[in-house]
């Protein structure tokens, strides 16, 4: 069995999704096990602070170790629950935890932590990590990387499709039915990151379950227009972003110009911001279907508003094309590790803007 472990923690910084998969044939994924390891509250808070430049080199080093240990524990738990031994696993693909992503300017960089040497050492499995920096070195944005996986498994010769990942940041992949047309993909802007941060700030809850709080509010059009005026939304791809830009401080700075908006109306407006910015940047193709994945795909209010703003495009989830929305990203990093160890490229230059295809990641042998 050609089994692989993929592990992902996204910009929501809520925990680690780990999946054990095999790829029995082209365009086929077989899931053998999954697990989610939430970050302890203190780790999540420290990660959030570090991502906003509130931390020291010691803090960076400590969190690199602690997050790496949690990734190793996740992989070990997955093997235990699946009754597989390390020798039966071909490799691990670990995305790690993004701390800062600054792909533009004279000194571009992207930083993911979660010490892969600990993962390889503690699991006894060859581990591939640090996937993004090679694309960045080749002149790309280093994000999004998952469109290559989307192309390999979700494209369809009979239908134009878009895959929408609703993590902390939303990213969109357009898969044309015509194989001669290029795949495109980019970050559209914020998704769960702003809604989660505002919900935590106002209610103490880590997220707005099922969008229930947002659904009690009203869109404040003046606030929405102000948020939409950010230059990022008008930029042309390739482009990528993160919580170093779209964060609670960004929201609160804007709110200094809108002091009478209630907390619940801010939450509803942030949800509308996600739906509108996706719709505004969605390729226009008659009959296209939008397949959502990521944590935001569990938010029925967000999906309802996406159906409204993206009409006449049909909005559904990747469950309807064979993969549970929660496990798309983790599966992608299992596949990217497989690509790396096979000596095959993992990026799409037409998506990231890199000079060409590149083999991604660094390999840490068992």
Number of strands: 12
**What is the residue-mean pLDDT, rounded to a whole number?**
96
What is the domain total for the residues?
A: 2
Structural class: alpha/beta
Intertermini distance: 19 Å
Which spans have pLDDT < 50 for at least 5 consecutive residues? none
What is the CATH T-level topology of the largest domain? Nucleotidyltransferase, domain 5
Radius of gyration: 20 Å
Helix content: 25-40%
CATH superfamily of the largest domain: ATPase, nucleotide binding domain
SSE topology string: EEEHHEEHEHHEEEHHHHEHEHHE
What global shape is seen? globular
CATH class of the largest domain: Alpha Beta
Number of helices: 12
Note down, in words, how this protein is organized.
- The chain has 366 residues and is α/β, with parallel strands linked by helices.
- It has helices at residues 41-51, 57-82, 116-123, 133-137, 147-154, 192-203, 221-228, 248-255, 263-281, 300-309, 328-341, 349-352; strands at residues 3-9, 15-22, 30-38, 89-102, 109-113, 127-129, 161-166, 169-175, 184-190, 289-293, 314-317, 362-364.
- Strands 1, 2, 3, 4, 5, 6 and 12 form a 7-stranded mixed β-sheet that branches. It has a 5-stranded mixed β-sheet with strand order 9-8-7-10-11, sandwiched between helices.
- It is globular and about 60 Å long.
Secondary structure blueprint with pairings:
Elements: E1 3-9, E2 15-22, E3 30-38, H1 41-51, H2 57-82, E4 89-102, E5 109-113, H3 116-123, E6 127-129, H4 133-137, H5 147-154, E7 161-166, E8 169-175, E9 184-190, H6 192-203, H7 221-228, H8 248-255, H9 263-281, E10 289-293, H10 300-309, E11 314-317, H11 328-341, H12 349-352, E12 362-364
Parallel strand pairs: 1-4, 4-6, 7-10, 10-11
Antiparallel strand pairs: 1-2, 2-3, 4-5, 6-12, 7-8, 8-9
């Amino acid at each position: 069995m050609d089994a692989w472990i993929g592990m992902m923690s996204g910009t929501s910084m809520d925990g680690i999704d780990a999946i054990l998969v095999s790829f029995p044939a082209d365009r086929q994924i077989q899931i053998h096990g999954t697990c989610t390891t939430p970050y302890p509250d203190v780790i999540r808070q420290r990660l959030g602070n570090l991502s906003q430049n509130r931390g020291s080199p010691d803090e960076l080093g400590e969190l690199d170790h602690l997050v790496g240990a949690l990734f190793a524990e996740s992989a070990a738990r997955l093997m235990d629950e699946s009754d597989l031994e390390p020798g039966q696993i071909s490799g691990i693909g670990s995305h790690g935890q993004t701390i800062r992503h600054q792909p533009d300017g004279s000194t571009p960089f992207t930083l993911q932590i979660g010490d892969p040497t600990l993962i390889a050492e503690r699991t006894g499995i060859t581990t591939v990590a640090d996937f993004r920096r090679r694309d960045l070195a080749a002149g790309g944005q280093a994000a999004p990387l998952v469109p290559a996986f989307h192309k390999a498994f979700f494209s369809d010769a009979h239908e134009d499709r878009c895959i929408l990942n609703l993590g902390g940041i939303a990213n969109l992949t357009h898969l044309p039915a015509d194989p001669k047309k290029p795949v495109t993909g980019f970050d559209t802007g914020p998704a769960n990151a702003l809604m989660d941060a505002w919900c935590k700030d106002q209610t103490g809850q880590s997220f707005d379950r099922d969008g229930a709080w947002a659904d009690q509010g009203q869109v404040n059009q003046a606030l929405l227009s102000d948020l939409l005026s950010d230059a990022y939304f008008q930029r042309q791809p390739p482009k990528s972003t993160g919580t170093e830009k779209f964060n609670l401080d960004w929201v609160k700075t804007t709110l200094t110009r809108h002091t009478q908006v209630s907390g619940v109306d801010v939450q509803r407006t942030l949800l509308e911001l996600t739906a509108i910015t996706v719709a505004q940047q969605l390729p226009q193709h008659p009959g296209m279907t939008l397949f959502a994945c990521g944590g935001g795909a569990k938010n029925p209010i967000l999906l309802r508003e996406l159906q409204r703003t993206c009409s006449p495009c049909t909005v559904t989830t990747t469950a309807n094309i064979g993969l549970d929305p929660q496990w798309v990203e983790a599966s992608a990093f299992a596949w990217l590790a497989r690509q790396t160890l096979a000596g095959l490229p993992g990026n799409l230059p037409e998506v990231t803007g890199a000079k060409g295809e590149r083999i991604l990641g660094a390999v840490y042998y068992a």
